[in-house]
Amino acid sequence: MFSWTGTIDQFFVEHLGFPEGLFIKVLISLLLYLGARFLLWFLQDLSRRNVTELPRRHIVNKIITYSIWILLVIILLTYWIGTGSGILAYFGLLSAGLAVAMQDPLANLAGWLYILVSKPFSLGDRIQIDGHAGDVVDIRMAATTILEIGNWVDADQSTGRVIHIPNGWFLKRSLANFNQRFNFIWNEIPVMITFESDWQAALEIVQNILNHHNPMDEVDAQRQVEEASTHFTIQYQKLTPVVWLSVADSGVILTLRYLCEPKRRRSTADLIWKEILIAFAARDDIDFAYPTRRAYLNHQEGKPGAGGPSAPVGPTA
C-alpha cells in the first residue's frame, strides 16, 4: 500500500482511536464503489448504442444494474467479513433475521425472480391483477409499474396514472395477460332494435358492416393461435366476425363479436358504431330500442288466436 495511506491510517489509529487498517478498508471500498459506478455507466452506454429496441434495452440495462450491484455487495462482504466459516455463519444469521423481519421484501424479490424466469408478462404487455389493469412500463426488483387503463375511463383507455404493484402479488393472485402468445381479444358490441323493426334486414346490415370493418388480420390471428396452442390448450374453431341474435325485454339484441388488438378496442367500436348509425338512419323499418313504458291493449293489438281482435272478414262474392 502507498506510504501516504499508511500514514493517514496511523493518524486515525493514534488520534481518533480507530482500529488499525480501517481507513485502508474504507478507502478500498470507496474505490470499488466508484469503479462499479463507472462500469455501470460504461456498459449502459454500450447498451444504448448497440441495442435499438427500447424494451430489449430496458431489460439489458436492468440485468447490468442488478448484476454489478450484487457482485459489489458480495465483494465488499467478503472483503470486510472474510471467507470460510466466518462468512457462512454471518450469512446464516443474516438470512434467519431477514426471513422474519423482511417477509414482504423477500416475497417481492421472489416475485421478481418468478417474472424473470417464467415470464408471465413482458414490458409493453397489458395486464390485470386484483382490479388493477394497465400496460407494463417497468419491472424492478420490488415492484412492477403499469400505466393504468379503465377505472373511471371507458373502453380500456389510459387514465394517465402510474400504479406500482408489489412483485409478491404475482405469486399469490390471479394475473390476466391481454397479449401473451395471442395478441387479440374478443370484443362485443350489443345493438338493440325494437320488436317492430325488420330484424332480418338489421342483421344483414350489421354483419356486412362488421365484415367490411373487421380490424383483424385473420391469417395473422390463425398463426398466433397455432403458436399459442403449443404452450396452452387454446382451440378456436372460428375467428371470423359473427353476429349473434337474442331477445330481451325491450327489443331484439344483435351482438357483434369480433377479434381486435387489446389497445384498439375503443377505436374499432367507434368506427363500427358510426357505420351502424348511418345505415339505420337510412332505413324507415329499423328503429333502435331503449327502455320505455307503453300501454299494450291485447284486445286491440293482440293476435286473433291469443285474445286479440277478430280477423276482418273479406267481402263475399
Note down, in words, how this protein is organized:
- The protein is an alpha+beta fold and 317 residues long.
- The protein has 3 domains: 3-101, no CATH class; 120-177, Roll (SH3 type barrels), CATH 2.30.30; 185-281, Alpha-Beta Plaits.
- It contains 10 helices and 8 strands.
- The strands form 2 sheets. It has a 5-stranded antiparallel sheet. A 3-stranded antiparallel sheet has the order 6-8-7.
- The chain starts with a helix and ends in a 16-residue tail after the last helix.
- The mean pLDDT is 80.
Which labels suit this protein?
317 residues, alpha+beta, SH3 type barrels, Alpha-Beta Plaits, 3 domains, three-stranded antiparallel beta sheet, 17% strand, elongated
Indicate the overall shape.
elongated
* Unreliable residue runs: none
Order of strands side by side in the largest beta sheet? 4-3-2-1-5
Taking Cα atoms only, what radius of gyration do you get, to the nearest Å? Answer: 34 Å
Quaternary structure of the protein: single chain
Instruction: Tell me, rounded to a whole number, the average pLDDT.
Output: 80
Helix content: 40-55%
How many domains? The number is 3
**Distance between the amino and carboxyl termini:** 131 Å
- Strand fraction band? 15-25%
Number of helices: 10
Secondary structure class reads alpha+beta
> How are helices and strands ordered from N to C?
HHHHHEEEEHEEHHEEHH
How many strands?
8
The main sheet comes to: 5 strands, antiparallel
